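[scheduler] slot 2 assigned
[scheduler] job type: sequence-to-structure, two independent chains
[scheduler] chain ordering preserved from manifest
[runner] begin chain α
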Amino acid sequence: MSRHRLERSLRVTFIGLLVNAALAAGKVAAGVIGHSQALVADGVESAADLVSSLVVWRGVTVANAPADEEHPYGHGKAEPLAAAVVSSILMVASILIVIGAVRDILRPHLVPAPFTLAVLVAVVVIKEGMFRFVHKQGMELESSAVRADAWHHRSDAITSLFAFVGISIAVVGGKGYESADDYAAILAAGVIAWNGWRLFRPAMNELMDVAPGADFVENLKSIAAQTPEVAGVEKCLVRKSGNEYLVDMHIEVHPEMTVERAHWIAHQVKDEIRRKVPSVRDVLVHIEPAGRSYTSGM
């Protein structure tokens, strides 16, 4: 990860931390004063966002650490690991919201105060704006952790929107409709859980070294095949580490070529791939004699 990318990632995460801290405190206070369990649950979800942002912050920082003896391939997987943790927090938060809402449905409570609606309108606007800002940065930085953090903001906006609808029904309906905001909280929890699962799967795929798209691999093979004196590309395996890729490639050369010449060609392939595809951090090139069949593993 470049220094510029690290600084942008940390700046985006820090802004999210400040916003989440302010909104969590404001929503919990407004929920307690205004007798809205949905708003309190919403505040708790924002508090979970604080933890998530801290996880992302740490994940991005660790991913930037250079390779060492214990981690010769670098620390890039800290980013998808952080994304998996954040996604898990989303799913756990949804369960806690449902538990709290069901508990409040089973016991009588006051109708939420009308002023809580104004609080929720402000929250939805702020969090949706944060989602768009953070998600755009995450896409540009190719950071799964930052994108996961963005969806935390979107989930918070969704929770607040559902709470707004529930509180509106409770306020307009009056006595007998007190639990409307609790049911709204349950619906919001379902959306949050789905977003958590949707983010969890790609993060786990990246941790499991899932291959990138076929077009990406074919492009690498094409670059190698076009390198002078390369007779063919036998195989090309690619895995992602953070926002960078590590490539293992078998190329075929003339069977009577000297070791020195074959070694030079391997470097040419590596340099050409890294020049044309900057996201590739390293290429391990294995030489095979063209026209001969060998059974060997990677």
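[runner] end chain α
[runner] begin chain β
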Amino acid sequence: MAGLIDIDKLTPAERLELIGELWDSLESEDVPLSPAQQAELERRLETLEEDKKHAVSWETLKAELDARRR
């Protein structure tokens, strides 16, 4: 069969890239959630607006982490 990929010949980086491409090709309805995952998603959506008030930018977080490493 033409077009098949010999996964054993791919580097780990290439395999991860392939996983990402496969994942991105799925629609949200293609990925079933367990009841626990669905409950957690609903909990997070309910607190989203309040959580946004405490959010920081990536730049701020990165600067804080960099300062802690010194």
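[runner] end chain β
[qc] chain β: The chain has one domain: 10-69.
[scheduler] slot 2 released
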